Amino acid sequence: MSDASLLDRIRIVLARPSHPGNIGATARAMKTMGLSRLVLVQPKVFPDPQAEAMASGAIDVLNQARVCDSMAEALEGTWFATAITGRRRELGVEPCWAREAAAELAASAVTGEVALVFGNETSGLSNEEVAFCQRWAVIPANPEYRSLNLSQAVQVLCYELRLALVAPGSPPPVLGAGEPARHEEVEMLLDHLERAALSCGFLDPASPKRFMPRMRRLLARKGLEKEEVNILRGFLAALMDKGR
Amino acid sequence: MSDASLLDRIRIVLARPSHPGNIGATARAMKTMGLSRLVLVQPKVFPDPQAEAMASGAIDVLNQARVCDSMAEALEGTWFATAITGRRRELGVEPCWAREAAAELAASAVTGEVALVFGNETSGLSNEEVAFCQRWAVIPANPEYRSLNLSQAVQVLCYELRLALVAPGSPPPVLGAGEPARHEEVEMLLDHLERAALSCGFLDPASPKRFMPRMRRLLARKGLEKEEVNILRGFLAALMDKGR
Q: Boundaries of each tRNA/rRNA methyltransferase SpoU type domain copy (chains A, B) (predicted)?
């Protein structure tokens, strides 16, 4: 089983969601990170056109969503569940931060089915609902305003789950970038610059000050391209020609 | 200057946003992570009641948003800008992943003002807009569906920026958790269990099998509370009494 396919063992449970738009946005957030199993416990309005509009290209995730009557039913088949909650809880379940929670869930998916549980937009999760979970987790947030929208919280956790399970690999390659300038080409440009500065009197050989070290530093930046060097040298040649 | 106040040096620039709801949701996403400086380049509709509705408790961020005519104006005063884009670009600007981009932006905010630039919901950023930035970054996503909603992308990046600048500290404390059971209390419970199992004949001293090691493993789990131990011992005592 590949690590990416472990994402299929992680279900996202929304407890009593009020706004169908948030259900749709949740489906989209899940699919962008490769998750597909959405479970809804007593949704207020579902299905609904607003959910479909917000799901955008994740309509398949929405259509496959399972609707349950209770949290117990939603968690059937799981062996580990983490509750996401913004509030401090009057409970003995052990808390952690979202990133650590995602890593733990990802590791737990190797053993079997797991769940990530989110509460109602206004009231959050009840103590009874949290008590079904083995862990609860908090998204680090601004202490003066920690109220993430429901689907935003899902997005952050699904993003963390993907990073925990699927190595992003090398960053996307730079397309259309020119061939990089080599060391000796940059040196030739520096030499050209020095000759041009001397020929126009800008650079006094008796008192060169910091001109050439400055130019070297400017051109030492990573990513200088062969063509840029050629353009600059052509420009210098033209300036020198004109002054002759 | 504290690390948290460096968040004030990071502006979020939305280029030509189409949906006022996304502007509001962006303001909320920013505020939950402690960012406050929103810049809008040629928003299609702004201000708008839908933006206010989606901003929820971040109406202050929305009201302070700066509206600009051009990307150049939006970036005035910054020395470093990162473009977030989902597509591969025909440009030589260096790409990286969102997490590394957030770390680089956070570090760059020490030197001065920086910007994180997001494109239009449908068309993304134009090549001209990306060319204003020193870096472009991609949110790792499902290769089959990488289309994050605009405000979701902002949420992920602001979350990464917060983590890069503000150590979340210890997880929130467990409130209402009882006093933890100490080693010797757990040992007394194990001893009690053994006596109970012997007294009712469940445990044969001549062939104890794995009963006690199993019980020890069960009770070795972290977080057992003093009161739980007391309840279990009371229960055992009552069972033993009844069998007498």
A: 10-159
